[in-house]
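[#protein-structures] MJ: dropping Rab-GAP TBC domain-containing protein here for a structure pass
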Amino acid sequence: MQQYSPRAIIWMTYLNYLPQDQTQQLSFLKKQQQLYYSYIDEFINYELLEIFNILDNIDSDQNSLSFSSFQTIQTQVINSCMDYNEYIQNEQLYEMIEKDVPRTLSKQSIMKEQTNARFSQYFFTDQYKRRKLQNNTLPIHQDILIRILYIYGKLNPAIKYMQGMSDLLAPLYLIIKNEADTFFCFTKIMAQLKDAYISTLDFTNTGIRGLLLNFETQFKLKEPNLFKYLYNLGIHPYMYGYRWIITCMSREFYLDQIYQIWDLMLHNRNMHDFIIKFAIAILKYLKPQLIEADFKLAFDILMNSEKDVLQILNFM
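AK: finished. structure tokens for Rab-GAP TBC domain-containing protein:
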């Protein structure tokens, strides 16, 4: 059994993923590993790998091939292997994820480090071709995030992928350090937070507009003077609250601070309720800096300033 850090065990316990009976944990984790790899085999199937290898060889052998000629060959190759529309839908999902993941924890070099995990490329995307030109096609940790999110999107077609989901996945992956367990813990988090990513639920209490309205209401109630001051500047709660809430603060702090926040968020169980309370505490903490700032400075403080988690917690 993999050696998990104390924090990884605590997080998996908070998410009700790890069985409380320690005698059952090893067999459970092995079973989950097998289940996850069955998803890889199901959704990243032989046809996709065959298409990728054919297109990769064509691109390598014929660098002078025009884009339109390559597209014609690509269509023929896909049609010979599988349903064309299904392939295009899969590729669109993959590309959407592939474009977003590099922005996730972009300051953390570990995300670009190579990994020994079993990994095969399965879509011939622009991002892949750029890496290929840079002689950097070996799998890195970002590739594992992409694969987890792709499999989640295939299993959850009502959501697929929305921007910000990679920000929820990355802290889990870096703490748990196991792809299968990270995937299943991510599904646990998304079970509670997914409504914020479904546009048809925007105006429900758990949809993103409902959450932002709750945040605005709480802000107006707890800090009416600061709310009015920022409102008169033209800075409305959704302008900064959206990113704070949708990513559960994972873009606002350094990695060790994100872990501190998530320790409390996962323990709280009602994650969005905790994040909204934490967001109000941030505003209280920043109030002395904000109350005399102009629009540009105030917005910069809200979105880009360094913040002390321990001091913010004193305002909760």
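MJ: nice. The radius of gyration is 22 Å.
AK: one more thing. The longest helix spans residues 22-43.
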